[in-house]
Amino acid sequence: MNVRRLLPLLVFLAAPVFAHELGLTQVNAAFHRDGTYSIDFTVDREHGSPHAAIDSARIFFDGRRVIPNSRIIDGVNGKSWVARVILSGRTPTGVSRFTFADDAIPYFMLALRNEGRSGVARQWIENGKTSEAFVLDRSVIPQTRWRIIQTYLALGYTHILPRGLDHVLFVLGIFLLAVQLRAVLWQVSAFTIAHTITLALTAYGVVSLPPRIVEPLIALSIVYVAVENVFTSKLHAWRPLVVFCFGLLHGMGFAGVLTDIGLPRSEFVPALLAFNAGVELGQLTVILTAFLLVGVWFRKKAWYRQRIVIPGSLLIAAVGLYWFVQRISSSIS
After folding, report:
1. In this predicted model, which residue has the larger pLDDT, 322 or 152?
2. What mean pLDDT is predicted for residues 285-313?
3. Torsion angles phi and psi, residue 122, rounded to 5
4. Looking at per-residue confidence, does 237 or 136 come out higher?
5. Do the Cβ atoms of 66 and 59 come closer than 8 Å?
6. What architecture is domain 3-140?
7. Residue 50 in contact with residue 43, Cβ under 8 Å?
8. Which residues does 167 contact at the CB level (< 8 Å), separation at least 6?
């Protein structure tokens, strides 16, 4: 058996017995899902300076050195001669590997872990050598701005299609009453401006309503638009204003989704705008699809209102009313 290979392990296991004499330590490097990293270790003041350990620490991501933030905490576990050193910072975007070295610590055990993963990788480092590359889990590597935009654009779109049936029915209710595509787009623009306002205000914590209030009211907005389609054949001047008011309500519903998903702190505004743009693209897809399937072929027919607008609106109203009762019941129980 190779005694030389066993020596580091024996020294590490014996560390609790003579750590004070040797200044032996364990360096813990953790990579977090919020895109940050932290490196934590203790320094025996009688055998080294914590400031020297900070100055000599070398942190590399994909071979490129980064300078961390540093903090020293004097006295650990009641031992005044021991100082705790914490190095921290943001993990650069797009990297995949991490390496570490510190000339001020003659030998140490380096423990590395990705948050959310149970495994811990350990390496024995001595004589100022650089550690072997540690592979970072994708969940702890911050995404590039373009990648964040793509992600939240897709999230906004899929919140309408296929997951946002309530918002789809509301948009279809808008579509059915307005024969001209321009009139539909005017209403959808009012709806978009409104939900953009409340989406931003809610995401920033300025406005807040609990889902048990917002969700039933969204269902009720669907009922209102559909019922109005049945009782009037003309697009009145107040309709865009009504749609705008309902858009404020739907924006709070969109914000509830973002609250569950979360927004990256470093790219808060691009992610918010991308999500909203995805919602808008989803709404436009619904309108253009309805226009191509129904509007182009039948909107000028004499029977369009009797055979399509009224039956379609009644169906939408029935579904909205069912959701309203269901959501009220869920909030009470």
Report:
1. 322
2. 87
3. -125, 140
4. 136
5. yes
6. Sandwich (2.60)
7. yes
8. 159, 160, 218, 250, 253, 279, 282, 283
> What would you report as the CA-atom Rg of the chain, rounded to the nearest whole angstrom?
30
Half-sphere exposure of 72 (CA within 13 A, CB side): 15
Q: Who wins on pLDDT, 96 or 140?
A: 96
Q: What is the dihedral of CA 248, 245, 190, 268, to 10 degrees?
A: -10
Q: pTM here?
A: 0.65
CATH 1.20.1250 boundaries in the chain: 145-332
CA dist 235 and 178 (Å) reads 6
Q: Which of 145, 190, 152, 182 is nearest to 276 (CA)?
A: 152
Q: What is the mean pLDDT of residues 274-288?
A: 91
Distance CA 45, CA 54 (A): 13
Please list the residue range(s) of the chain that carry CATH number 2.60.40. 3-140
Report whether 178 contacts 291 (CB < 8 A): no
3-state SS of 283-323 is HHHHHHHHHHHHHHHHCCCCCHHHHHHHHHHHHHHHHHHHH
What's the pLDDT tens digit per position in 247-263?
898 888 888 777 777 77
Which pair of structure tokens corresponds to residue 77?
A: 């576990």
pLDDT, one tens digit per residue, over 9-26 is: 544 444 444 333 334 578
**How large is the average pLDDT for residues 224-241?**
85
Residues whose CB falls within 8 Å of the CB of residue 101, separated by 6 or more in sequence, listed in order: 57, 58, 125, 128, 129, 130, 131
Distance CA 47, CA 84 (A): 14
C-alpha of 210 from chain center: 20
Q: Does 43 score more than 90 pLDDT?
A: no
CATH says 145-332 is which class? mainly alpha
- Dist CA 305 CA 60 (whole Å): 68
